[in-house]
Specification:
By secondary structure, the protein is an alpha+beta fold. It has helices spanning about 5-10, 40-55, 55-105; strands at about 20-25, 30-35, 115-120, 125-135, 150-155, 160-170. The protein folds into two domains: about 5-55, no CATH class; about 60-170, 2-Layer Sandwich (Pantoate--beta-alanine Ligase, Chain: A,domain 2), CATH 3.30.1300. Helix content is about 40%, strand content about 25%. The strands form two sheets. A four-stranded antiparallel sheet has the order 3-4-5-6. A two-stranded antiparallel sheet has the order 1-2.
């Protein structure tokens, strides 16, 4: 509903030069919009519209930088949670394995506590154990100190990445 802007300008009482590039879009609301009369103005408007719809190189670079920072942080967090999971699994299983090995060595009437080492088998791959038995000399105990032994069971995982020590003292009567 374009209205001749010359007539509108005369009605309002203003100079027609002011309204040369304006056109009335809606008579009731009396809104004015730019009327592209020349090719140059039309060309400039279309180039402005094209620039407004896309992203600039700077915006893309900033968004990629933010995304890379976030992804690196998420990767580190995930890696740290996996390490903590492995560590917590080890420190949960190692005491049970050490106590089991100690009970295995002390089972039976002819229990022998000797220095030994080995693997826990395919149920616990990567877990190894080492038992060391030492004499304890405490003069205050007298003759009992000859039968007192210090037994240390060491459980390690993944070639000593994680290590757990269990130390106990037992009286082992000599024959």
């Amino acid at each position: 509903m374009a209205v001749n802007y010359w007539h509108r300008a005369k009605r309002i009482g203003q100079s027609a030069r002011l309204f040369r590039n304006l056109r009335i879009v809606d008579l009731r609301a009396m809104r004015y919009a730019l009327c592209p009369l020349r090719y140059g103005i039309q060309h400039r408007e279309s180039s402005i519209e094209n620039r407004a719809t896309g992203f600039t190189l700077l915006e893309v670079m900033v968004s990629v930088a933010i995304m890379s920072i976030v992804l690196v942080s998420v990767y580190r967090l995930h890696s740290q949670s996996l390490t903590m999971d492995t560590e917590s699994r080890f420190y949960t299983q190692a005491p049970m394995l050490a106590q089991g090995k100690l009970a295995e060595m002390g089972a039976g009437e002819d229990a022998e506590f000797t220095n030994d080492s080995g693997e826990f088998g395919e149920n616990f791959e990567g877990y190894s154990w080492n038992v060391s038995v030492d004499d304890v000399d405490i003069e205050a105990l007298g003759e009992i100190s000859q039968d007192l032994k210090k037994i240390e069971v060491t459980v390690s995982y993944n070639e000593n990445e994680f290590v757990y020590h269990l130390r106990t003292y037992r009286i082992i009567r000599g024959e």
